[in-house]
Amino acid sequence: MTSLSIRLPDDMAEKLKNIAKVRDMSLNKLMVELSAQVLAEEEAKQRFIAAGLRGNPKQALQLLDELDALGL
Predict the structure, then answer these.
(1) pTM of the predicted model, to two decimals?
(2) Are 44 and 66 in contact (CB under 8 A)?
C-alpha cells in the first residue's frame, strides 16, 4: 500500500475531518472512498469516449445512464 501526503487548505481539511467523523470513519477511509469514486467516474468517462469512437451509440447511452446514476 502506498502512503500519500497532500496539502489542503486548513478549512477544507477541517470540513473533511468533520465529514469523516459524522460518517463514523477515519479520514483515511473517507479519502480512499472519495478517490475510488473519482476513479470510477473517470473510468466511465473513458469508456463512454471509447464507445463513441467505436460508433456504438447503444453502449454510449448505457454509459451515460451509469454516469447519471453517479450523479454526474
Answers:
(1) 0.67
(2) yes
Q: How far apart are CA 61 and CA 64, in angstroms?
A: 5
The C-alpha angle 38, 42, 44, rounded to 5 degrees, equals 115
pLDDT in tens, 2-21: 998 999 999 999 999 999 99
Confidence of residue 41 (pLDDT cuts 50, 70, 90): confident
Spatial neighbors of 45 by CB under 8 A, at least 6 apart, are: 67
Grid coordinates in use for 4? 500519500
Give the C-alpha separation, 36 to 39, whole Å: 5
Per-residue DSSP letter, 59:
H
In the chain, where the domains are located? 37-72
